[in-house]
């Protein structure tokens, strides 16, 4: 694969065995009949596209979920044959959705009408759609007062089959907002039953995301959507899941810096005493963001945590290795099993989703 051929020494190691372990961890929380949508949007949360999708296809996951049509098209062109839901499609995508056998989320009357028109023009086959209901997230989705018109249109749209009805939980990972989550689930149950009563065929229902599976598994309905949990991060930040992603780089050079000398752009790194530094092959263009510089974050070098010193550059960064034994060529762990991704997320005052998806495409993905 292209990612394997890259020579940049900064790399993201993706443990596919750990990914499958995490999938099975969530499966054990639900009845055996429950279907799974594995979310592989945004380059599989930074982990790569084809290799992750192929591993999930081999495990007989029921659906893959992507955000945009281009992501689904790329998977099809690389050989993925299993069903794929496109969550954020627009009328500009519909012809390609039909061409590549991709199934759209339908979230408004306009998208319903437009997709139906596209089917009449470009396909002689009945097409699956997935109806999104807005139960409180207030992003995409039908609201309650739109359901009667939506049903009226569906009754006359013989070219469409509602494969699933779903909604999205806004705060399933926040214990103090469980009342809101329960309210969302109740609305979803009520509204989806109204829709199903008007259809003469079975329809799948799903509302749980990764944290929802962990905390509200009794509301699994027919199917669930597994996203971040698949990649080793869960709502409670416990060790029940296996680490999938490990970001590593190597030391390019080490050098002695005298007390009072400065390091890096803007001379923000100042040696308080005689210091040994190491220059790393990773910078903000790789996803190691500038906010992590000037001692804000520590990386793991030969079992020792070493702080950054000076500003993070576009392609390189510098660490203080005075307390470690290290040389040029040595491996450095930015995050991984021994140095959890939660720590870098906390330093960046963000969430692990953003850390993973910020990892640049130029960083080599290595699968094991």
Describe this protein with a few key phrases:
2 domains, 29% helix, 368 residues, alpha/beta, 8-stranded mixed sheet, elongated
CATH superfamily (homologous) name of the largest domain: Alanine racemase
Detail the poorly predicted runs.
Answer: none
| Portion in helices | 25-40%
CATH structural fold name of the largest domain: TIM Barrel
Which structural class should the secondary elements be placed in? alpha/beta
Provide the β-strand percentage band.
15-25%
Count of distinct strands: 18
How do the strands and helices of this protein lay out in sequence?
Layout: H1 2-5, E1 11-14, H2 16-27, E2 35-39, H3 41-45, H4 50-58, E3 63-66, H5 69-77, E4 84-86, H6 94-99, E5 103-106, H7 109-122, E6 127-132, H8 147-155, E7 160-166, H9 178-197, E8 204-206, H10 210-215, E9 223-226, E10 245-257, E11 262-263, E12 269-270, E13 275-280, E14 298-301, E15 304-307, E16 317-320, E17 331-335, H11 341-347, H12 352-357, E18 364-367
Parallel strand pairs: 1-18, 2-3, 2-9, 3-4, 4-5, 5-6, 6-7, 7-8
Antiparallel strand pairs: 1-10, 10-13, 10-17, 11-12, 13-16, 14-15, 14-17
Give a description of the structure:
The chain is of the alpha/beta class. The protein folds into two domains: 31-231, TIM Barrel; 245-367, Beta Barrel (Lyase, Ornithine Decarboxylase, Chain A, domain 1). The protein is built from twelve helices and 18 strands. The chain has helices at 2-5, 16-27, 41-45, 50-58, 69-77, 94-99, 109-122, 147-155, 178-197, 210-215, 341-347, 352-357; strands at residues 11-14, 35-39, 63-66, 84-86, 103-106, 127-132, 160-166, 204-206, 223-226, 245-257, 262-263, 269-270, 275-280, 298-301, 304-307, 317-320, 331-335, 364-367. Strands 1, 10, 13, 14, 15, 16, 17 and 18 form an eight-stranded mixed β-sheet that branches. The protein has an eight-stranded parallel β-sheet with strand order 8-7-6-5-4-3-2-9. The protein is elongated. The two termini are 13 Å apart.
């Amino acid at each position: 694969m292209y990612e394997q051929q890259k020579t940049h020494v900064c790399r993201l190691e993706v443990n596919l065995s750990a990914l499958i372990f995490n999938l099975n961890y969530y499966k054990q929380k639900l009845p055996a009949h429950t279907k799974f949508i594995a979310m592989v949007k945004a380059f599989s949360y930074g982990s790569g596209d084809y290799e992750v999708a192929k591993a999930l296809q081999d495990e007989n996951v029921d659906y893959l979920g992507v955000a945009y049509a281009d992501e689904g098209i790329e998977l099809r062109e690389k050989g993925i044959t299993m069903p794929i839901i496109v969550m954020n499609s627009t009328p500009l995508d519909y012809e390609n959705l039909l061409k590549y056998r991709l199934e759209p989320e339908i979230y408004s009357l306009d998208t319903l009408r437009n997709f139906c028109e596209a089917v009449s023009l470009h396909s002689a086959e009945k097409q699956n759609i997935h109806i999104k209901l807005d139960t409180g997230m207030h992003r995409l989705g039908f609201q309650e007062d739109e359901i009667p018109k939506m049903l009226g249109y569906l009754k006359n749209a013989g070219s469409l089959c509602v494969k699933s009805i779903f909604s999205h939980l806004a705060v399933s990972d926040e214990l103090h907002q469980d009342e809101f989550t329960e309210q969302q689930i109740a609305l979803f149950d009520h509204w989806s039953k109204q829709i199903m009563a008007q259809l003469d065929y079975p329809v799948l229902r799903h509302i749980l995301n990764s944290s929802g599976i962990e905390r509200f598994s009794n509301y699994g309905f027919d199917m669930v959507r597994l996203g971040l949990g698949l990649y080793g991060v869960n709502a409670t930040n416990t060790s029940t899941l296996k680490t999938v992603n490990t970001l590593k780089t190597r030391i390019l050079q080490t050098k002695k810096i005298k007390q009072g000398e400065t390091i890096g752009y803007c001379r923000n790194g100042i040696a308080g005493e005689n210091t040994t530094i190491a220059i790393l092959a990773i910078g903000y263009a790789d996803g190691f963001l500038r906010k992590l510089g000037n001692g804000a974050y520590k990386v793991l070098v030969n079992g020792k945590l070493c702080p950054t010193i000076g500003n993070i550059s576009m392609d390189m960064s510098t660490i203080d290795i005075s307390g470690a034994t290290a040389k040029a060529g040595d491996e450095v762990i930015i995050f991984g099993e021994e140095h959890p991704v939660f720590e870098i997320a906390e330093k960046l005052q963000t969430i692990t989703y953003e850390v993973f998806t910020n990892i640049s495409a130029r960083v080599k993905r290595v699968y094991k």
